[in-house]
Design a protein that fits this description.
The chain is α+β, with helices and mostly antiparallel strands and 179 residues long. It has 7 helices and 4 strands.
Length: 179
């Protein structure tokens, strides 16, 4: 008798489709829910998940097959767009993850890297973080609460002091949701 096990892989590490289940399917479902798709986040890739994936693929103009391979996963990970980073001396994947607030797995996926080896001069695609335009009266504490983060996390991500006065019109990077 075969025993089914749950995979603890991250989104983009394997192809997802009907019948697959695991932490990466749960992450997929949470990302789809965050974008307004009607899907239950239960970690099982069923018909509702397939329909949501196909609707997402149509919206991005990519192959509509209901499978989440590297292209679809890349679009899900880069939900808020992408940035380009030209590798400088001293840059490492670990340093870039801290600088941009993204995971090494996301950087590897978007750049088709099989490991963490990068070269000076190489241009990497980095997933952008969600942003917030500061309104009159906003404080770091208020914006942190709206984004389900701490004032310290928000300030660090934007290279600000937690007591910094915010100016209307400033654009702050927000921590991305954790799944």
């Amino acid at each position: 008798m075969a025993i089914a096990t749950c995979s603890a892989t991250r989104l983009g590490q394997r192809i997802l489709g009907p019948g697959v289940w695991g932490a990466d399917v749960f992450e997929l479902q949470m990302r789809l829910r965050d974008m307004g798709y009607d899907v239950v986040a239960d970690g099982r890739y069923g018909p509702a998940t397939k329909n949501a994936v196909m609707a997402f693929q149509r919206s991005k103009g990519i192959k509509v097959d209901g499978l989440v391979g590297p292209e679809t996963a890349g679009h899900l990970i880069a939900r808020w767009g992408t940035l380009q980073h030209q590798v400088k001396k001293g840059d490492t994947i670990a340093r870039l993850t801290r600088q941009y607030g993204v995971s090494a797995a996301e950087i590897r996926l978007l750049n088709n890297l099989s490991d963490d080896v990068i070269r000076v001069g190489q241009v990497l695609i980095i997933p952008a973080l969600p942003q917030y335009r500061v309104q009159e009266g906003d404080t770091i504490e208020r914006i942190a609460a709206l984004s389900s983060s701490s004032p310290e996390e928000l300030a660090a991500l934007n290279q600000l002091d937690t007591t910094a006065a915010l100016q209307p019109g400033m654009v702050l990077r927000l921590p991305k949701p954790s799944y």
